[in-house]
């Protein structure tokens, strides 16, 4: 025969349940605080991730601008050193296309001087080496680049010579393309 164990014997205390109502409240607070902390951490991680992606996109855009500006600077500086008299028309056309601002005014004058010099001296120029780098990007979006190149020059009646140049170029964006606004020779 079985005896009635009573309600006290059916709910044994093994230490897993809350002993008092105060302990239950503390446990809920800890769980609520932990959940709030995890929520804040996930929001912080999400915001940080967004800011990093946005910064990366801006950096990529700056790199694209720098690459385009350097290519424009090298092309325009190379146009100031045409290979010979037959390359002058293409060089003059390139200077007209790539120049603006102060350099735009100089380019027209420069083309006339080059024509006279090349015709009078039968000049031949080769550019075996040219390098360029961005020095800085200004707040107005213009880019200052430094172009360094060697020019091998030969002309009738004079020994061949090699000249090295360092040119500081200011580039501005016009109609989606970079153009040379200023071109200055830098002393060594």
From TrEMBL:
Q: Where in the cell is it found?
A: Membrane
Q: What is the first-listed, main subcellular location in coarse terms?
A: membrane
State which residue ranges cross the membrane: 30-53
Q: Name one GO cellular component term.
A: membrane
Could you tell me which residues belong to the region Disordered?
A: 1-26
Transmembrane helix as UniProt keyword: yes
- Is the Transmembrane keyword given for this protein? yes
This protein's UniProt keywords: Membrane, Transmembrane, Transmembrane helix
Please identify the protein, giving its name as recorded: Mce protein
